[in-house]
Design a protein that fits this description.
By secondary structure, the protein is α/β, with parallel strands linked by helices. Helix 5 links the parallel strand 5 and strand 6. The chain is built from 19 helices and ten strands. It binds tryptophanyl-5'AMP. The site of tryptophanyl-5'AMP (TYM) has 24 residues, from strand 5, helix 5 and strand 8.
Amino acid sequence: MPDFIVTPWEVSGEIDYDQLIKEFGIESIDEKILFYIKEITNEIHPFLRRKIFFAHRDFNWVLDEYKKGNPFYLYTGRGPSGSVHLGHLLPWIFTKWLQDKFDVELWFQLTDDEKFLFNQSYTLEETYKYGFDNALDIIALGFDPKKTYIFSDFDMAGTLYRNALKISKKITFSTIRATFGFNNSSNIGQIFYTSIQTVPAILKSVIEEKNIPCLIPHAVDQDAHFRLSRDVLPKLGYYKPASIQCVFLPSLQQSGKMSASVETTAIFTKDKPDAVKKKINNAFTGGQKNAKLQREKGGDPAICPVYKYHFMLFTLDDDEIRSIQSKCMNGELLCGDCKKDLIEKVNKFLSEHQKQREKAKDKLEDFLLKEKIDLKSLIKEKNSK
Ligand code: TYM
């Protein structure tokens, strides 16, 4: 048995990201790429500097094309199966930075179909509804309404299906089984699904009837889908999509990623200050059993989710994070104080996010794309002629 699992549907164990780079055949974000990004954007986002975005496929090609005057568009997504948590925000915050820096479009897919197919307990109506709830979190991050298209798969079914058919015809069942590990009890919607997640990687090219580079920011769990996309799309005359991939914001407990399905591992964007306080106070840490031992021996930030939340999202100032790290290791900083600091930062962030989320309710229509597929009114219209 491997020590960890990373698939689009399961992430567990202590993840060895270097091993994933080898296994998936992705490339690490190295100094050369960082230098290249800085040359274009005049800045290196802390997520890049800190290797939170740690790997990519063809990101350098996308930058080459951009410099030649052939800009890319961004594509990312969300499987709406409940409330959004801080882990989901990680790739989206970075996507927003990319949109700002490169002044490019973002196509955002809400895969209500995926969540329906992969979770026995959800109805179509539920996943569709979650999509619009989750869209508020996306909009709250400040994406440009003139350059951002958010769509539910149900609402774009016509275009998606037409293109997914072409894609699915080029993928065999044995490839799907080898890539995703499906078995005889997998439903047939699951087997087809990846072709739907591939379509937005060519949507802009389809619409504009010319090849346009696409860059997909996501956490590394989604790589399997786009590995397949990259095999298939050139066979249909399209570019391979490029990607830039992040590590997971960890669970608040001892191992694994922050996961919506395990409440105590996650902080949700709708959490109230008291809930945040309780969850962080109950979190696993890399500290010693008691304050006396901590002062003597120091803690271990490398295994501590509390430290990782500071590092990955809430303490982006380099001097400050270095100070937290060294004071933890030399026993000056106690876990209680480190948690208190994190609670304050998370609640400050969430209070602003929740305000923006409320405002997003009035902006939803500026972002949503919908094909008109209301059969009932179409029939009514036809019969009234
Ligand atoms: P979903 O809804 O599982 O996750 C949405 C995005 O968040 C990333 N993610 C995380 N990132 C950091 N830390 C975590 N703990 C964490 N958990 C999830 C995911 O990698 C993803 O980027 N099938 C997709 C929806 C989708 C999509 C896409 C995602 C459709 N098209 C294109 C990325 C790019 C899904 O269910 O994501």
